[in-house]
């Protein structure tokens, strides 16, 4: 009798143990506990054309982990970028007030004093620092004064280098796509084996390209070595100053004023007044600036909607004639062949999205991008307005932008028909905007440590699989024992 009880009890106990093991392995611990409190971080992205405020959040108990920082909210500052306040520096600080007041509301009060606040300025301020370092310093002091008046943990207002901007954009994209490290489905950290994606950013005053490469990087200025989560990455990066959307438009206008009497990239039927000061006060147009011009003069310019002439005008922005390395993108800048997948955000996204959504044209190859651009450049102002009147302020410039993007990607970076389809034009990953801001915060708050730290303390992926299989086997053996026992019991009672 005792043996019979044992024969039933043992498999049952085994079964129970197996099930408990499986449950313990499969239920992520954080789901069992109460939802964790959040921590917050704020980054002001002071771009050349406008400033955006991003508030990020992450579970307080996972400060050093990854894959878990997401965008909590954002705010667009009204008016121009902080560099546009060169003649009224206090205005730069004042412009941020509305968004900072929103941050006071968005971040719970008890977290205010421990919430880091950063301001990073990009190419607009790099240009101002070139033309007038004193004005650039006044603008930075003004925003610093405003930011220190808020209850957050303000950690400085800085101008990012082009290299930082490129690398932090690359870090953001790969962090959000979980290419560095990822929270596994059974509650542990795993290092995914997929590679990283390249990042292309088109801002108002500069454009950046950043990607991992196994080729030699012939110009040390383009090489960045990163150590993230115990893994080494060698990244090529370059930032082209004066190749952002707004500066490109100014440079094209300066070229038109010099040579033509109508703008070939503007649609037929479009006409506007151009303030000469707006065109010429940028260091990006200094080579085309007439010796004498009236600062306040306006000139009326109309569009001629000529795709071929527009292409020629845009091609003058690129210099392919010299290269002191084995290969260059343009302007004598070294670039290894583009490889792998890419994500193209900011104005790259807006431009291609306009071709796809508003013009309803496909953009999956260099040929299609070229054809779509031509079709856009050939549309009259009237027809364009009928397509999207809400975009009126930017509508006339889409042809120039698309022509520029097409030449930058195809002739400049040399995306051919084989690799062009590996570009994803995308501005967000999940709910989080892709740009340098998140990568900047992650680095400055030490959330992407160079070493393994505690990420691999938990059993690694292989052992988890083995353990799960083991528990399943235990259950199967127990079931088999029960079955055998039931069988023999039956045959015994039959006798
Ligand atoms: C995160 O790392 C820092 C520095 O190593 C450490 O001081 C801090 O306690 C860690 N925080 C958590 C929640 O593990
Ligand atoms: C402005 O440019 C100078 C010269 O390149 C540089 O030393 C300085 O750090 C820049 N200013 C800021 C605030 O970055
Ligand atoms: C292209 O760059 C080279 C070297 O910097 C320069 O000599 C040449 O004048 C440039 N060409 C044009 C068309 O700007
Ligand atoms: C440009 O538009 C005109 C009508 O506005 C049309 O007749 C012509 O075929 C178009 N050309 C191209 C290349 O699409
Ligand atoms: C990240 O921050 C550290 C200092 O906290 C700095 O030394 C490092 O260069 C930064 N990384 C990048 C890519 O700029």
TrEMBL record:
Protein name per its UniProtKB record: Ectonucleoside triphosphate diphosphohydrolase 2
Molecular function GO terms recorded: ATP binding; GDP phosphatase activity; ribonucleoside triphosphate phosphatase activity; UDP phosphatase activity
Gene3D superfamilies: 3.30.420.40, Exopolyphosphatase. Domain 2
UniProt topology in membrane: Multi-pass membrane protein
GO annotation, cellular component aspect: basement membrane; plasma membrane
Family: Belongs to the GDA1/CD39 NTPase family.
Active site per UniProt: 165
Species in which this protein is naturally found: Monodelphis domestica
GO biological process: G protein-coupled receptor signaling pathway; nucleoside diphosphate catabolic process; platelet activation; purine ribonucleoside diphosphate catabolic process
Record-linked InterPro entries: GDA1_CD39_NTPase
Subcellular localization: Membrane
Signal peptide: 1-21
Bilayer-spanning residue ranges: 461-486
Chief location of this protein within or outside the cell: membrane
Binding site for ATP: 204-208
Cofactor annotation: Ca(2+); Mg(2+)
UniProt entry keywords in alphabetical sequence: ATP-binding, Calcium, Disulfide bond, Glycoprotein, Hydrolase, Magnesium, Membrane, Nucleotide-binding, Signal, Transmembrane, Transmembrane helix
Keyword Disulfide bond: yes
A family per Pfam: GDA1_CD39
């Amino acid at each position: 009798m005792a043996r019979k009880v044992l024969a039933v009890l043992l498999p049952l106990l085994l079964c129970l143990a197996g099930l408990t093991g499986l449950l313990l392995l499969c239920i992520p611990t954080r789901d069992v506990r109460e939802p964790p409190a959040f921590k917050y971080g704020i980054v002001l992205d002071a771009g050349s054309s406008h400033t955006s405020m991003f508030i990020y959040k992450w579970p307080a108990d996972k400060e050093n982990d990854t894959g878990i920082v997401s965008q909590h909210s954002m705010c667009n500052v009204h008016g121009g970028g902080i560099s546009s306040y060169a003649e009224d520096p206090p205005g730069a600080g004042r412009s941020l007030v509305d968004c900072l007041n929103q941050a006071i509301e968005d971040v719970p009060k008890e977290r205010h004093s421990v919430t880091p606040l950063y301001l990073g300025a990009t190419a607009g301020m790099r240009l101002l620092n070139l033309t007038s370092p004193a004005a650039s310093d006044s603008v930075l002091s003004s925003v610093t004064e405003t930011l220190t008046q808020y209850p957050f943990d303000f950690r400085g207002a800085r101008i990012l280098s082009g290299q930082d901007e490129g690398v932090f954009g690359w870090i953001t994209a790969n962090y959000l796509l979980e290419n560095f490290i990822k929270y596994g489905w059974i509650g542990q950290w795993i290092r995914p084996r997929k590679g990283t994606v390249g990042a292309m950013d088109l801002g108002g005053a500069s454009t950046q390209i950043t990607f991992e490469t196994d080729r030699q990087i012939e110009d040390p200025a383009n090489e960045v070595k990163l150590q993230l989560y115990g893994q080494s990455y060698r990244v090529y990066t370059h930032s082209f100053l004066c190749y952002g959307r707004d500066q490109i438009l100014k440079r094209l206008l300066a070229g038109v004023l010099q040579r033509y009497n109508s703008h070939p990239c503007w649609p037929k039927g479009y006409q506007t007044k151009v303030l000469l000061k707006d065109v010429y006060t940028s260091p990006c147009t200094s080579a085309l600036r007439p010796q004498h011009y009236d600062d306040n003069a306006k000139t009326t310019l109309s569009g001629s909607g000529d795709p071929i002439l527009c292409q020629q005008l845009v091609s003058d922005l690129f210099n392919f004639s010299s290269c002191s390395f084995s290969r260059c993108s343009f302007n004598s800048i070294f670039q290894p062949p583009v490889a792998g997948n890419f994500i193209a955000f900011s104005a790259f996204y807006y431009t291609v999205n306009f071709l796809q959504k508003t013009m309803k044209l496909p953009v999956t190859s260099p040929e299609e991008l070229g054809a779509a651009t031509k079709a856009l450049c050939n549309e009259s102002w009237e027809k364009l307005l009928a397509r999207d009147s809400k975009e009126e302020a930017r509508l006339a410039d889409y042809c120039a932008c698309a022509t520029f993007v097409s030449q930058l990607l195809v002739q400049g970076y040399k995306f051919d028909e084989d690799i062009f389809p590996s570009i994803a034009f995308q501005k967000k990953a999940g709910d989080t905007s892709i740009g340098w801001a998140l990568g900047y915060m992650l680095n400055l708050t030490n959330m992407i440590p160079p070493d393994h730290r505690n990420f691999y303390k938990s059993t690694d992926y292989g052992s988890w699989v083995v353990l799960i299989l083991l528990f399943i086997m235990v259950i199967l053996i127990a079931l088999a024992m029960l079955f055998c026992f039931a069988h023999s019991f039956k045959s015994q009672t039959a006798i």
